[in-house]
Design brief:
Elements lengths: L1 E5 L5 H10 L3 E5 L2 H4 L5 E4 L4 H10 L3 H9 L4 E4 L1 H6 E4 L10 E6 L10 E6 L5 E6 L4 E5 L4 E6 L2 E7 L2 E4 L10 H18 L1
Parallel strand pairs: 1-2, 1-3, 3-4, 4-12, 5-6
Antiparallel strand pairs: 6-9, 7-8, 10-11, 11-12
Bound molecules: glutamine (GLN).
């Protein structure tokens, strides 16, 4: 299994570290030819969603990534990655990848004091550490979206088919639960393909 990590901006190296610890092959996606390399999944890291979106556009990566997600390729977006995958952003006209049927609120915890750490349950996988950095949360989720985690009543992790998002940063902790969950998602897609 090989996972591409979008490496235009933000916390991509940390995701590579988590994948390395799990023994999962990974490579950086920096330009259009990279996305053509064989891969079984893609991680869109945290960073600054507006900057990342502009770079995706400029590098001609936005459409190919949107297409591969639409055709079932597993994707995991953290923080800014969640914002890019959301179909809508509250009070903003922000174009992005927009494939997941959720609405998100950017900088939902305030800009300055928006960074904090807590613990919470992630799906049925048990408790995980959750690091939030100027994070969004999910304000609306369509009925096909499975809510995987909430903090103070706000949705902070969710899945819809081949798309997984977290408002927090598992790659900034030693806990590999969420990355393992993503790897399992990919394994299931691969099984379906070969069935
Ligand atoms: N606040 C950033 C944004 O709106 C996201 C922050 C993050 O990815 N840590 O893009």
């Amino acid at each position: 299994m090989t996972i591409g990590v979008l490496a235009l901006q933000g916390a991509f190296i940390e995701h590579e570290g988590s994948l390395d610890k799990l023994g999962i092959e990974n490579f950086e996606v920096r330009k259009k030819s990279d996305i053509l390399k064989p891969h079984d999944g893609l991680i869109i890291p945290g960073g600054e969603s507006t900057v990342m979106c502009r770079l995706l556009n400029d590098l001609d990566l936005l459409d190919p990534i949107r297409e591969e997600i639409k055709t079932g390729m597993p994707v995991f977006g953290t923080c800014a990655g969640l914002i890019l995958l959301a179909e809508r952003i509250e009070n903003e006209e922000e174009p992005g990848i927009n494939t997941m049927h959720i609405e998100a609120k950017r900088n939902a915890y305030g800009r300055q004091l928006g960074s904090f750490e807590t613990h919470g349950n992630f799906g049925s996988e048990g408790e995980v550490p959750m690091v939030f950095i100027r994070a969004p949360y999910i304000t609306k989720a369509s009925e096909n979206v499975e809510v995987l985690a909430k903090v103070d009543g706000k949705i902070v992790a969710a899945r819809e088919g081949n798309e997984l998002v977290t408002a927090f940063h598992p790659e900034l902790t030693d806990d590999l639960t969420v990355h393992k969950y993503f790897v399992d998602m990919i394994k299931k897609v691969k099984l379906k393909k070969t069935a």
